[in-house]
Amino acid sequence: MVEGQKGVGQNRKLSHTVIVSRPDQKTHSPISEWPKLERPREKLRMLGASALSDAELLAIFLRVGVKGKSAVALAQDLLDHFGNLPRLLSCAPEELTRIHGMGISKWAQIQAAYELVKRSLEEKLSQESIFSSPSYVREFLQAKFGRLPHEVFLCLYLDSRLHLIECQELFRGSLSHTAVYPREILKEALSRNASALIVAHNHPSGNPLPSSADQALTKTLSEALQLVDIPLLDHCIVSGSGFFSFSDAGLMRNGLNKE
Known about the structure:
Layout: E1 2-8, E2 13-18, H1 25-28, H2 40-47, H3 54-62, H4 71-82, H5 85-89, H6 93-97, H7 104-127, H8 134-145, E3 152-158, E4 164-172, H9 182-191, E5 196-202, H10 212-226, E6 232-238, E7 243-245
Parallel strand pairs: 5-6
Antiparallel strand pairs: 1-2, 3-4, 3-5, 6-7
């Protein structure tokens, strides 16, 4: 790379100053040797968590890197390997521990942090009406089971104030199918004295759009719940990269008015 050109003497010959590229020292040096405001913990303390990249946040949980690689560089390698943060968070321990520098203790630390996020969202739903914080329903469901490799059917039982009583995994199936029994859903809702219900299931295929079977189930379940005066407010379909709400799509006719 040429930084500049200078004429020398009358013959105007050129001399060149060559810039030699150097590897990023932060990749190889310990974080303790970085400028203070570039260290993830210091950056978080001074600027807040939102100022940190995914790799920097993950590095705080990893705590240390491996020989010749900082914790931030190791964290970025993990993100590159899994493709994105949700896939990393939902990986099995066998997947993570195959990567150099990653043992079962680091997997456990990441899983513990992820579980705290899910519990925080669930507690938020138990304290506020679902209509006062609709985004929490989506975030909670996506975190809860959006990237599972098999289908799961959940019920969210709500009280008269539309606060969450309990989220229950009621049925579990294969990659593409789960058998759902409306009679069991009614029994569980009545046992919790639920005043309303939201049901949800995931599509491991990645496409959150409802199938004809999903639509038929929603209709059957809504009609069955009407017999015991429990409105079905929504049926949500979750995937790793998408979300579908029957209510938002105008396909729920028997739920409560959101206004």
